[in-house]
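User: Reviewer 2 asked us to show a designed sequence for the structure in our supplementary figure. I'm pasting the structure tokens here. Could you produce the per-position amino acids so we can include them in the response letter?
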């Protein structure tokens, strides 16, 4: 399986408060927020790599971290996030996902399969999305994700 890979931060204490994590950035995002701190990761493709390459990045940091954070771009737009999450659970690390909430089906799959420990949702303002149809899609999916995650993870 291929991954649209943007980069790795081998040890981060900023991406998950209270945890040392390896942060994996995945390329591509359906939104084009002008204020995005990861703006270089929005366009695709950047660097298509094999799944094992990303697993190796995680393995290198494992002795020093307790978690893996998948960020982007938008990590939930890539099917590879599921086998990566399975791998992370197999090696005993916690999983966090930074998401804009536009992919509730992928979030649901990760929750149902117990492949995620924490979601960090960055709710986007629909007015920044240029196409009206895309605005409706993003707003509706974000609402769905928020409801799903509140129920599934008992968030307030």
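Assistant: Here is a per-position design you can include in the supplement:
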């Amino acid at each position: 399986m291929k991954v649209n890979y943007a980069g790795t931060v081998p040890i981060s204490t900023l991406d998950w408060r209270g945890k040392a994590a390896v942060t994996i950035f995945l390329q591509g995002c359906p939104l084009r927020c002008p204020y995005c701190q990861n703006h270089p990761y929005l366009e695709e493709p950047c660097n298509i790599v094999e799944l094992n390459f990303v697993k190796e990045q995680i393995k290198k940091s494992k002795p020093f971290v307790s978690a893996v954070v998948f960020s982007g771009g938008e990590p939930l737009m890539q099917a590879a996030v599921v086998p990566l999450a399975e791998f992370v659970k197999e090696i005993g690390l916690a999983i966090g996902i930074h998401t804009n909430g536009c992919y509730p089906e992928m979030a649901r799959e990760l929750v149902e399969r117990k492949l995620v420990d924490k979601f960090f949702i960055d709710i986007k303002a629909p007015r920044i999305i240029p196409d009206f149809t895309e605005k409706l899609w993003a707003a509706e999916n974000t609402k769905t994700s928020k409801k799903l995650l509140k129920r599934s993870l008992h968030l307030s």
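For the response letter, you might also mention the following. The first strand starts at residue 2 and ends at 12. The domain at 2-153 is CATH 3.20.20.70 (TIM Barrel).
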